[in-house]
Amino acid sequence: MAVTKKPLIRYKILDACFKNPYKNFTKELLLDAVNDKLLDLFDDETQCVKLRQLQDDIAFMKSAEGWGIELADIKDGKKRIYRYEDLDYSINNAPLNEVEMDQFQSAIQVLSQFEGMPQFEGIQEIIAKLKTDLKVSTNEKPFIGFDRSQDLKGIEYFSTLYNAVQNKTTLEITYKDFKTEEPYTYIFHPHYLKEYNNRWFLFGFHPESYKWDWNVAIDRIVSVRPIVIPFVVNETIDWQEYFSDMIGVSKGVNAVLENVELHFNQLTGKYMENKSIHETQKHKWLDEFTLELKIKVMPNYELERLILSYGESVKVIEPQHLKDRIKERLLKGLDNY
């Protein structure tokens, strides 16, 4: 079967229907759901499909060449209900099938043509990651390792969150943070996804608090689902500028930009010459033993953690309140010993 962009879109629509426990999808309702979504996406009735195509799509998803999905045997009178046997299953979480493998291989070939061009800086790493993941999927032993967590909690929600940001879809999120004993549920308007330190964070508008930069850690999400509530578009925050003012993802209520000066010893200083911790970084050697490094950021928790990670190799010179804070945390750590 020749698979183009639109069949893949149909498979994803069907996938969302199959894992929906709140609606009984017969073939007729599945056909309506698929065609309604295709009309929303393309505004073109010629993109709609007939029942025969829908049956072929389901058969492909059930096949070994597809994802080998398992549908429950549920009846509503004489009509069959189409729903996953395991409602936690999704084709987004399944191993790559032959179609996806072919598409990835083709994509890598196209991307490889742009290697070395200045406007595609960093594409080499993307290509290497894709090739490595494909080798894992085809049982070939990888020969390169990336800094990533194989068991990243909450990553199963990434596709839903990505689509919600892209399609401006309001979400209902059930969340369990570190401070509460029980999960709680709220409405959220997602605007931006951000990765930091092998964790993903979702930023957006939280109507209850009227905060435009509400922060959702993906690994703390218990459940998430799209809901039919008018989406509140972000017209307040430039996210590129927002994150350029800090390290990490935490911004204090009264945070202001400050000049941060750090001194590194000789050995670590040679390392820091080639490792930028922020885009505003400037450094120079004060003598053969001390590297002066300056950045302009809003001091936050992540900056403190970064400084502490260098242990005895670094000293905070300014601002004074950050110097005092690091000293206080080092002394508290010393009490553990």
TrEMBL record:
Residues 287-331 form the WCX domain. Pfam families: WCX, WYL. InterPro entries: CBASS_pafABC_assoc_protein, WCX_dom, WYL_dom. It comes from the Bacteria. Residues 156-224 form the WYL domain. PROSITE patterns: WYL. This is WYL domain-containing protein. It comes from Flavobacterium fryxellicola. The lineage of its organism: Bacteria, Pseudomonadati, Bacteroidota, Flavobacteriia, Flavobacteriales.
